[in-house]
Specification:
The structure is a single chain. The chain is built from 22 helices and 23 strands. The chain is about 35% helix and about 15% strand. Helix 4 links the parallel strand 7 and strand 8. The relative contact order is 0.09. The strands form six sheets. Strands 6-5-7-8-10-9 form a six-stranded parallel sheet, with helices on both faces. A six-stranded parallel sheet has the order 19-18-20-21-23-22, with helices on both faces. The radius of gyration is 26 Å and the shape is globular. The N terminus is likely disordered.
């Protein structure tokens, strides 16, 4: 359902039009409104107040006008990072994050982030300027000529092009609704250059704008589906709950916690669901993950998909005898998309609807006499948790020289515990795996990482957006390889004076830094970086704080000062170059590594 606006969006003093002697307002005839202003008013009407992007032809003036109209424009050094920022802003706010780029190469740079947003179900709108439609269709060689809509469509939930000023309101409304409705995702909106100066009657223009009403309506699950799911859970001898990042996005935190605690069922959080319940919660089975997955007989999935991150719900991870073996268990799956069920293994009790409504319905139907899971199951999990936690504690207590992942991340673990409102951004291979298992989270949506694709390069874009959207301190734990994808954005952090503390776990290479060129040639191994690289100098170059840390004590002191000062800080935490394994914990996906 949409609502037509009958008056312009609220303006600020800076929006006051300047009337010339010729009776024109800001260069257009009095009584008319141009495409620039209609785009701005459509965004403001729908509560979008922040734009991430990079100015250039043909959207330079639009960025100026957006800023003058009171929207915050965060300008990046590369469109891909701006796109990552927009996507994670969408995840954090449940409003579509907007990325604004120039045409062709700029659009293509943003396309990676758009595809990643669609894969991860992050609501995002990529808006790009483009060449004129008639020139593109005849392939006449316009400046940065490209059929951007056709290229975007396979990688987005939807793709739209607006050719006429009177359609700007509809185009923006369709993009917002597509990004947010059902399973969220990325949407592309194409704005050709000649759209911006087009003028129409001001009153007609304002009436053409649309305020999107209820873009993500609740989808109530069928009562019989809820009952079927509860009966299956009640019959379980070894039940398990898996929380995915969809559960975190839903912001149904209180009901999810109540469902977990009322049923007494152990749970495992996927990485971006960490903190929905504190990682220290007694029902968390994360420390016994390798035991509970193959042993569970009924598994409830809340906002989690049985993709590669969960071994597709089959194979040895789940107790099967071969990679194709489904194993012997039943699944209950809560998901807003009915097509998700049976995508890899049979789903015995699909519950289709938005997560908040589904969890609420299940919670309301449980009753007061819900049976707790058998003590044998709970005791077996507790026994393995105690054993694994003891091993981790022993590893964290070591203080080797140089530092390794455990000794460095033990410091990060303590800093996050002391600052539970801080947002942790995390990417890398080993840096990702070790951080996920070592650093506990205490509140929801405080851990942002590489997500479904495991894509590298999200670090600085996510960090900028997290700081801008939340105003909270951000801690970015980066592998030295991962940091290289977006490192120039430290200038963006300094320019906007954002409270981001970057910790680079520097072991001189991709995975590790001790590999040699086996041919004996003069070139280094493709996996090795410059020895002794001084990453902290990059932050210093733009006025931020740079620190070289070679011991846990130096790392702790630098992080504590960053938390206190809230200044952009980069800590080059030098660790043993022999620390790390190829591909981290997904070595099995690397065909070369299998042969070693």
């Amino acid at each position: 359902m949409v609502e037509t606006a009958t008056k312009p969006a609220a303006t600020t003093a800076e929006d006051t039009p300047k009337v010339t002697r010729s009776g024109e307002i800001n260069g257009q005839s009095q009584g008319e409104i141009d495409g620039f202003q209609l785009i701005i008013d459509a965004l403001k009407l729908n509560g979008i107040d922040t734009i991430f992007g990079l100015p250039g032809i043909p959207i330079t003036d639009l960025t100026r006008k957006l800023q003058r109209a009171g929207l915050r424009v965060i300008s990046f050094r590369h469109e891909q990072n701006a796109g990552y920022a927009a996507s994670i802003a969408g995840f954090m706010t449940q409003k579509p994050g907007v990325c604004l780029t120039v045409s062709a190469p700029g659009f293509l740079n943003g396309l990676t982030a758009l595809a990643n947003a669609t894969t991860n179900c992050f609501p995002m709108i990529l808006i790009s300027g483009s060449s004129e439609r008639e020139i593109v269709d005849l392939q006449q060689g316009d400046y940065e000529e490209m059929d951007q809509v056709a290229i975007a469509r396979p990688h987005a939930k939807a793709a739209f092009r607006v050719l006429h000023a009177e359609d700007i309101g509809v185009g923006m409304a369709r993009a917002i609704r597509a990004a947010l409705s059902g399973r969220p995702g990325g949407v592309y909106l194409d704005l050709p250059a000649k759209l911006f100066p087009q003028t129409i009657d001001a009153e007609l223009g304002r009436k053409s704008l649309i305020k999107v009403v209820d873009p993500a309506p609740r989808q109530i699950p069928a009562p019989d589906a809820v009952q079927r799911a509860l009966e299956l859970l009640k019959s379980a001898k070894r039940p398990l709950i898996i929380l995915g990042k969809g559960a975190a996005y839903a912001q149904a935190d209180a009901d999810i916690r109540a469902l977990v605690e009322k049923t007494g069922i152990p749970y495992v959080p996927m990485s971006m669901a960490k903190g929905l319940l504190p990682d220290t919660h007694e029902q968390s089975a994360a420390a016994a993950r390798s035991y509970v997955l193959p042993e569970a007989d009924v598994v409830l999935l809340i906002g989690a998909r049985l993709n590669w991150l969960l071994s597709h719900g089959k194979g040895k991870t789940w107790g099967g005898k071969s990679p194709k073996d489904w194993g012997d268990r039943k699944f209950v799956q809560i998901d807003i998309s009915p097509q998700e069920a049976d995508s890899n293994v049979p789903i015995d009790a699909p519950v289709v609807g938005d997560i908040g409504s589904c969890v609420s319905a299940m919670l309301g139907a449980i009753g007061s006499n819900w049976p707790k899971p058998p003590a044998e199951w709970l005791n077996a999990i507790a026994e393995r948790k105690i054993k694994n936690v003891a091993k981790m504690t022993e590893a964290l207590a070591n203080n080797p020289t140089p530092m390794n992942f455990h000794s460095a991340l033990n410091v990060v673990r303590d800093i996050v515990k002391a600052n539970p409102d801080a947002i942790l951004v995390n990417e890398g291979a080993n840096a990702l795996d070790f951080t996920r298992s070592i650093v506990d989270m205490y509140k929801p949506r405080k851990r942002l990482d590489v997500g479904t694709w495991g894509v590298m390069g999200i670090g600085m874009g996510f960090s900028v957006a997290a700081a801008v959207v939340s105003g909270e301190q951000v801690i970015a734990v980066e592998g030295d390889s991962a940091f290289g994808f977006s490192g120039m954005e430290v200038e963006t952090l300094c320019r906007y004076n954002l409270p981001v503390c970057i910790v680079i776990l520097n072991n001189n290479g991709v995975y590790r830094g001790d590999e040699v060129n086996t041919t004996g040639g003069r070139d280094p191994s493709p996996l090795v970086f410059v020895k002794g690289a001084r990453y902290e100098k990059l932050m210093e170059a733009f006025g931020g704080v740079g620190v070289l840390a070679t011991t846990p004590a130096e790392l702790r002191s630098a992080m504590q000062e960053a938390m206190r000062s809230r200044k952009p800080t980069l800590i080059n935490a030098v660790i043993d170059e022999k620390a790390g394994t190829e591909s981290g914990r997904i070595t099995s996906l690397n065909p070369t590594a299998k042969k070693k």
